[in-house]
Amino acid sequence: MKKILIINGPNLNLLGKREKEIYGDEGFDPLLKDMDTIAKNKNIGLSYMQSNDEGRIIDELHSCSSNTDFIIINPGALTHYSYSLYDALRSIDIPAIEVHISNIYKREEWRRNSVISTAVIGVISGLGLEGYKAALTFAIFYLNK
Predict the structure, then answer these.
(1) Domain hosting residue 32, numbered range
(2) pLDDT tens, 99-131?
(3) How many degrees, rounded to 5, is the angle at CA 23 between CA 26 and CA 32?
(4) How far is CA 121 from the centre of its chain?
(5) CA 20 to 30 Å from 14, out of 29, 30, 123, 144?
(6) Residue 1: partners with Cβ closer than 8 Å, 6 or more residues away
(7) Which of the residues 23, 81, 132, 142 is marked catalytic?
């Protein structure tokens, strides 16, 4: 069975509570449940981790290479400055897609740059939580080609 890992970075544990005008009023748990059902119907295993700790995310990336076939990652604010996250994504041989709930290109100037985009195969930005489902659909396609 192929396995997909979803990683959410700092402050994404506050979805549904934080800046609702930007991130919406839905928490992540209902979406994760829907995505798990979609994955199971395609015989794909889905796992999830969220951390506010950059080092923990990097450790997870380092340790997942033997049991993960694809990564969906929303690094949160780490997107804009974490060269160590970029290096971690480049150092593992697992395809990844970067997801952002808001359109980072319509936000503050400092948010418009992603230092990790060149370490992933694609970026989904601005589709709300549906962006994760789009990433999952692509990941399933990618793993079955």
Answers:
(1) 2-144
(2) 999 888 887 787 788 999 999 999 999 999 999
(3) 45
(4) 12
(5) 123
(6) 43, 44, 45
(7) 23
